[in-house]
Amino acid sequence: MTKKGLLIVISGPSGVGKGSVISRFINDPDLKLSYSVSMTTRSPRAGEKDGVNYYFVTRDQFMQAVKEGKMLEWTEFVGNCYGTPLEGVEKLRNEGRNVLLEIEVNGCKQVKEKCPDALTIFIVPPSTRELEDRIRKRGSEPEEIVQQRLAKAAKELEMTDQYRYVVCNDDIDLAADIIRTIIRHHMEKTF
After folding, report:
1. Which end of the chain lies in a sparser environment, N or C, as judged by fewer CB atoms within 10 Å?
2. Which sign, positive or negative, has the C-alpha torsion 83, 86, 91, 94?
3. Confidence band (pLDDT; 50, 70, 90) for 53?
4. What is the pLDDT of residues 64-78, one digit of tens each?
């Protein structure tokens, strides 16, 4: 019989480098990681495929899934809904896959209510000044958006106590190695 996989939640403020850190270990075959495919009410962007990048649904379909308890977590952002279908996560976990969710703090809170065994990791910057520098180096957003991201980051950084682990991304490879070690440790405890 296959042991149930872990549910791993990784959060952190915009600009902290979550994607860069995750990219260092997501394909490690020993970790048996799978991303879950999220559901959204937004329209597909060029090149995106339904069921691969997202499940693209109408607002009515999305809200029906919420009403029926079929969403592990969900949120509304800039007029569109985004969420994680529970069925897909459970299917992967029952196959022995460790499911990785890269979600916001509010989503993590919802996940912990439904799956108290979730492994939660929050990535923090070495300093708020460094975070601001990273956001500004993108150079792709107006000052108003930068300020909104910084304000949101400040609120999120106050919520790190809701996570089991807090990892500083001062060095991408080191942060990835620490998270890899945390996942392996929990795999050994589970398996």
Report:
1. N
2. positive
3. confident
4. 999 999 999 999 877
Burial of 81 (C-beta count, 10 Å sphere; 0-12/13-18/19+): buried
| 89 pLDDT above the threshold of 90 | yes
Contact 8, 121 (CB under 8 A): yes
Predicted confidence at residue 182, as pLDDT, reads: 98
Indicate the residue type of 78. Answer: V
User: Which one, of 54, 31, 58, 59, lies nearest residue 44 by Cα?
Assistant: 54
